[in-house]
Amino acid sequence: MLRLDRGRLKRLTALPLVLAIGAVLFVPGPHGVAASAPAGLDCLTSGGNAFDLTAAGGYAAMPDGNTIYMWSYAASGGAFQLPGPTLCVDSGAKVTVILHNTLPEATSIVFPGQVQVLADGQAAQPETDDTGNLTSLTTTAAAGSGSVTYTFTAGPPGSYLYESGTDVQKQVQMGLYGALVVRPPGHPDRENGREDSAFDPGHEYLYLLGEIDPDLHLAVERRRAYDFSRYKARYFTINGRSMPDTIAPNHADWLPAQPYGALIHIRKYDPVSNPKPALIRYLNAGSVSYPFHPHGSDEQLIARDGHPAQGPGGQDLSFSNFLIDVAPGQTVDTLMLWKDAEHWDPNGNPIPVPLPSLQDQIVGPGPETWFAENPYLGGEQGELPPGVVQNNQCGEYYHVAHSHALEQATNYGASFGGMMTLIRIDPPVGCPA
Ligand SMILES: [Cu+2]
């Protein structure tokens, strides 16, 4: 009987993608910004934990050149952005979120995982139309210029969504969602109250997953009817971006409405110089499960939906996996240490790594160099194609991370794109943070 160990199976299932995508070398980005610029969690904080959000229409850019009309949130004094600002608060804090509505219909915000939410000082209430049909899960801000003030006490530490509670199927799909990060007081370097949830605060990342059916967005923009029985998502996003925009830095100037990148930086684990893992916060604002799948290293699942993975006595129930399945509405937090889990090389992953032979390197139309048959992209040793003086910044290499439902790893059906990003493995010294 044929038996495959999990690592072997993973290599086999991952192989076509390693060959095709894992092999892109990024020198400067298409607009001259190095791919190594910051992509870590970009928190919006407030001294009084008071946030002002404006629901508004705007446009998101897709990698194939399409532009999609979206609804999302702008922070007070800021521009429209997809997703909404990442709100960061401490557990136990009194949080105020004032929602201003500029949309042509009523909207609202629900805070799944937060309890006893007040709206304008009263218990937040579902709303119904004249015939008794439910129209909103919570108190709304009226169309045009309405506003509503939500208050609540931040619940247990963890990752949470905030999103529209009104005409949810349409409004959340239109982009009315964001992340709420609740931290353990006094421990910004822990995911939750547990000591073993400690991470490197310089390596904290957001994967807010979503999807877009452009037909719905066009119908809303043109105020036409839309038949949800024909719903079909064509774009799959991480933080409102699709590959390759996912690897662009935070606040890339060519993505003015999509400020959050998803390029993970990590350095090889070392018990002395680099003991703490990276933290990745997965949130699913879409309509189906996204089976997320990092190559090269498993991740340790430590929490779901704001609950630590622990038993009733506090015993550690976290586990290591290469599939991080995130269900609709769910959040999953993982820790990642880079430990050569797959043993690609019997001596450990060499950093920097040798280049493949010259015949396996193909110079792209831009400054990029492409090659196949090697998961490692780093290193300056060896022969470069004519005219190429540097393949990467500092001897780093890359693994791909993506949804393993492969139609979600496309841009309007074209592979490879969509819900996909890269994990950048830096050598111990010499790379920017
Ligand atoms: Cu894969």
Descriptive report:
With 433 residues, this protein is mainly beta. It is built from three helices and 30 strands. It has helices spanning 6-20, 168-174, 214-221; strands at 24-25, 43-44, 50-61, 67-75, 80-81, 86-90, 94-101, 118-119, 122-123, 127-128, 134-136, 147-153, 158-163, 177-183, 204-212, 235-238, 264-267, 278-284, 290-294, 299-304, 307-308, 319-321, 324-326, 331-336, 361-363, 369-371, 397-403, 410-411, 414-415, 420-426. The strands form seven sheets. A seven-stranded mixed sheet has the order 5-4-3-7-12-8-9. A hairpin with a 5-residue loop joins β3 (50-61) and β4. The protein is globular and about 70 Å long. The N and C termini lie far apart (47 Å). Copper (II) ion is lined by residues 14, 17, 293, 295, 402, 404.
